[in-house]
Hints:
- The complex is a heterodimer of chains A (63) and B (280).
- Helices cover 6% and strands 30% of the residues of chain A.
- Chain A is mainly beta and 63 residues long.
- Chain A has one domain (7-61).
- In chain A, strands 3-1-2-4 form a 4-stranded mixed sheet, with no helix packed on it.
- The longest helix of chain A is centred in the middle third of the chain and has 4 residues, at 26-29.
- Chain B starts with a strand and ends with a helix.
- Chain B is globular, with a radius of gyration of 17 Å.
- Chain B is 39% helix and 21% strand.
- The longest helix of chain B is centred in the last third of the chain and has 15 residues, at 248-262.
- Chain B has a single domain (4-276), classed as TIM Barrel (Alpha-Beta Barrel), CATH 3.20.20.
- Classes of the chains: A mainly beta (63), B alpha/beta (280).
- The interface between A and B is medium-sized, with 22 and 40 residues.
Amino acid sequence: MSWGACFFYYRCPDCGRKFKYATDLIAELGPRFGLCPGCGAEGVLEKEGARTPDDLEYEEVDE
Amino acid sequence: MAKKTIITAAVTGAWPKKENNPNVPLTPAEISEDVYSCWKAGAAVAHLHMRDDEGNGTMDKNKFAETLRLLKTNHPDCDIVLNLTTSGDLFATEETRQIHLKELRPEMGSYDCGSMNWMNSGLFINSPAFLTELGKNMQEWGVKPEIECFDPGMIANAAYYLKKGVLKGPLYFQMCMGCANGIPGSVKNLVFMKETMDALCPGSQWSAFGVGHSAMEILYAAVALGGNVRVGMEDNVLYSKGVLAESNAQFVERAARVIREFGNEVATPDEAREIIGLAK
């Protein structure tokens, strides 16, 4: 049994961008994890889970 | 002669619903048709989960039986290897997690070789007593365990049960990469999993899949490292970043292309039986 990719879903407090990071990237990305891909601000964590129904509204960041 | 690579199709899983992807098959009729489509596209093994009438994961043996009946009745030409989950519902009992294996005698069943936290919210328990009983029962019932490992410790656990006689070699591993609380999905980590398996359980065969961002990385790496591959909506509801999968067969078709482009051949079910070590 697997459970797909799990994410932290963020909203940028500065530019409003919605984005997500897979939780298995926490170690690899280190301090970059959770930063807005647009302006670099620290994202506000809205929720977590395995592809919530509105998943596609959040840009996936993996580098 | 080109190496044969097995494609396993994991078409449903325990978590995705229609709201995650409307194309995920949930009913026995949908699942059986999806398995057939995947077989036609090149899958040699089908890993099956069931859902209740609300779409939640269930270990209801009648759902498994109905799915197998539909597949056999509607598609008697389909010789795909059936691999039934033993972990389709976190609240199932140790009895309901294995009674379908006893009654239906599939060629394979999953064997999750350790306990872990599930999505940071629940417990995925595979106690020593359960694993011991399940391993012995699977031997008695002629069901080959697919050793699902979410981290290297589970490979060590498989070696322990192999030495105890609970498992019988050669083993067949499924490296589950990138699941929450498991080993992150990366080529480096897959190499470590393979090397751990080779050291602790020499002579084993293996397959791998990655969820989310690591899906393609693990697919390519598994082929390059001489392993087999698993694809399907159990692990990924997106075909690529931001794009919902149209079907499970779409994943199988892509895996088949990768295997052929690499220079290998896609294993038929009978070839898979030989590689995995199934009694015909």
